[in-house]
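Technical annex, item 7. During the second reporting period the consortium partners agreed on a shared format for inverse folding records so that results from different sites could be compared directly. Each record opens with the tokenized structure and is followed by the designed sequence. A conforming record, contributed by the partner at site C, is shown below for reference.
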């Protein structure tokens, strides 16, 4: 299964929305001049949620992601 926005939508709207919100919050913190620690925290959160969407997508496709093989 491709790792695309369409494919990620299969992970379910709530998880996808959380991931997109986290990406936006990170971007806003970067452009808004937030402290570096806050920008990094938001980056890690966005990365984690994005990975969760991808992992869910792989599981739904019947393939375990590398993190749980």
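Designed sequence (site C submission):
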């Amino acid at each position: 299964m491709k790792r695309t926005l369409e494919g990620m939508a299969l992970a379910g709207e709530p998880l996808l929305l959380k991931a997109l919100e986290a990406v936006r919050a990170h971007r806003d913190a970067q452009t808004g001049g937030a402290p570096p620690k806050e920008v990094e925290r938001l980056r890690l959160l966005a990365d984690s949620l994005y990975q969760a969407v991808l992992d869910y997508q792989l599981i739904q496709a019947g393939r375990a992601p590398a993190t749980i093989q």
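The CA atoms of residues 11 and 57 lie 6 Å apart. The chain has one domain: 5-64. All partners now use this format for quarterly exchanges.
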